[in-house]
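yo

u said u wanted the structure for the complex thing, so here. seqs first:
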Amino acid sequence: MNIQETVETCNIILTQIGSHIIGKDAVLRQVMLCLLADGHILFEDYPGLAKTMICRSFASVLGCEFNRIQFTPDLLPQDLTGSEIYNQKVNDFEFKPGPLFADIILADEINRATPKTQSALLEAMGEYQVTIGGKTYHLTSSEKPFLVVATQNPLELEGTFALPEAQIDRFLSKIRIGYPSRTDEAKILTNRINRKSKSFSLSQIITKDVFRKMQQIVETVSVSDEIKDYIVEIVDRTRKAPQVRVGASPRGSLDLMALARANAVLSARDYVIPQDVKELAPLTLSHRIILNIGSFIAGGSSEEVVSRILTNVKAPRKEL
Amino acid sequence: MVNQRFKSLRRKETFLIIFLLLSLAIFQITMELLHGRREENPVLKLNLPIFELVAIIIPLLILIWILLKLEFPFRIFKPITIWLVAMLLLFFVASIITGANYKPYDFNPIESSTTTVPLSSTSITDTETLTDSSETAPTTRYTREPLLVLPILGDIQNSFFIILILISAIVIFRTERKRKQEGSEPLISIEENHRTPKEFEDAPKNIIECYYQTSEYLEGKGADKSDHLTAVEFDEDVEKKKLTEIEDFNELTDLFSEAKFSEHEISQSSVNRAKVVSQKIIFEFSNIEIDPLEEEE
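structre next:
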């Protein structure tokens, strides 16, 4: 697998999913980037915008095992990780894996679960392993990906537990889907009529080990010192901006670089250019920034802060 | 090679010339109608409007020629342009301070025997005369003249302005002719805007140098100079503003990105290609032909 093959495969995947998820090519590309960069995704948008469908579609075409977990206040950590159950036949405890042991997990309405359950998931996301009964189980391997796609609804906040900033930091990017245009919505209706069925199925395009190889291609992308400085400068500015209480962490820098490398691969390059960084900085950094109270009351948003930072940081273009 | 420089500038400059001429004509006619200046003007007593128009239009055409040579407004920061604009401002400020050229002179000049009363004190300070004129002296008339400004001042300003323009034209013309005689580049030309490219042994640096040279030139032509722009954004800006008719600038951008940010070994053919694209863009508006052999490389 080389870059060119990766690009071609990605294009086939995006075309196939794009034929069912209408008018969301940019979002699909962002999801593809996150998957290539091996990062977790947080979807934040209103219900009915195809968040679950996007997730399920990618799992189908990538040949990955998919599990959906509906988060509720009574969900326990063991319900995610699995637990040891006594087996009377063998007269011993045996481990029964939970839904976390899939390749792609959809954590639906993650903010509805209690902080304890959220922490269990987020720990698994960070460590790529769970420890039950003193025994450690790995969630990922060279052939098996582990990706969490979480969703949260920004409208209904009653009875929810907002994700702590430290935990939000574990998501590579926060993606907003947005409503489709009128034309696209009409096309969605037409597609539904032609399909004559509520659901649709997508055929598998690659296997998950091929997908892992595609992720490995991203690791071969080179990043020059100037690009590293550019990333560091942008992230550092998020910490110094007057509107910000807490800026992006070094994990933000790492994630921005990872996403920029994935973008380079999707653009058939084996090196990162400043445009990759600038284009993806809002996607990677805005959810990691906490505004101070003054900016929050004034109606400022972290996306605006990142945009302003990007227009103030000198891009590596003019120096020899 | 078609002289693309004027081809590209033609639309803008034609519009500018028409606009200026129309404004001038309307301004002149309005002033003539309102104040009858020609009657009072000691210089233009010939009473032929065409003379006066020509007297203004010729310097104006020369001014437009100067601006064209300076590639106004793309190179507004050139010292000579600053000087010219400063002179224009000085002229207008002087006009405002000393009184406009068209002070309200009496529309119908009257007999030389009439009493002259300053404009500011008309009908107020000379109450007695006014009373007398209404009752006993119907032959007494009043004229209005600017209190501080002599009518000739406006003409001095005009003359000064015209002389400035003529001097500018002569300076540019002479220097350019001198340079042509010496075989060097014209004084005011596209080529002046770009520095001589440095030659490096390192192939990537040569491509980067070509890109800098071209982007500096495009910045001089109106591309966004902001430091925060990436090479891709700069390319988009150039394309959006249609600053060059050469479509290869994005190729140069790609070569630059590869040379600057990748670990690839850059071939000599890439360097040659970058040089050709750079030269094509820089000499786009001049008559200099690109060596076809070099282009083929």
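Chain A has two domains: 3-212, 221-310. Chain A has a mean pLDDT of 89.
cya
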